[in-house]
Amino acid sequence: MNKQFFKLALLLFIGFAVVSFSSCKKDENANAQPNAIIGNWTVNKTTVSLTVGGMDLIAYLTTNFGVTTEEAQAFEDMLKEDYPDTDTDTETVEFKADNSYHIASIDMTDEEDGTWSVSGDGKTLSLVDSDQDQTNLEIVSLTASALVLTTQLDESEEFDFDEDGVNESTIDIGLELNLSK
């Protein structure tokens, strides 16, 4: 498992929550202050999405390979076992005013420290861990009490769906994350 995935997996287990991506949520970003991120955040839920060419994996499989929705769902569930959705308040993230951060599980078994920055346009949160590995997350919304982030993992899975020895598709893996104060 590469360092970037480890960092994203740690964030995944932090338990960020998915929220709707309405235009008003995106408008909140335009007025968000980058230092609104400073403080202690609790993670509520993380959701993993799997797509092929921008199409939801289940829709892709049912449309292109004639499998049933149940079969496609079973395949997606199998793939998601490596990237579990979470919905418990098991981790915290502290973004400090000195642009450092600390991620910790409630039981303190997993911890990470590094630095953070928000891009000038307020749309990207960059985390650089102690090994100098950088992870960029899109800021969907940032308010005084809620932070919603998304990212695409650099990893993807190639599959030979019709078992002819040729990989027909690449499955892209995305995360939708939410924190609350």
Short structural description:
The protein has helices at residues 3-14, 23-31, 57-65, 69-80, and strands at 39-52, 55-56, 91-95, 100-105, 111-118, 124-129, 134-142, 146-159, 169-180. The protein is α+β, with helices and mostly antiparallel strands.
- Rg computed from alpha carbons, rounded to a whole number of angstroms: 17 Å
Strand content: 35-45%
- Quick one: CATH class? Mainly Beta
CATH topology: Lipocalin
Secondary structure category = alpha+beta
User: If classified by CATH, what would the architecture be?
Assistant: Beta Barrel
Per-chain topology:
Elements: H1 3-14, H2 23-31, E1 39-52, E2 55-56, H3 57-65, H4 69-80, E3 91-95, E4 100-105, E5 111-118, E6 124-129, E7 134-142, E8 146-159, E9 169-180
Antiparallel strand pairs: 1-2, 1-3, 1-9, 3-4, 4-5, 5-6, 6-7, 7-8, 8-9
Textual characterization of the structure:
This protein is of the alpha+beta class. The chain has a single domain (3-180), classed as Lipocalin, CATH 2.40.128.280. It contains 4 helices and 9 strands; from the N terminus they run ααββααβββββββ. β4 (100-105) and β5 (111-118) form a beta hairpin. α3 crosses α4. 23% of the residues are buried. Mean pLDDT is 77; it is low at 1-31.
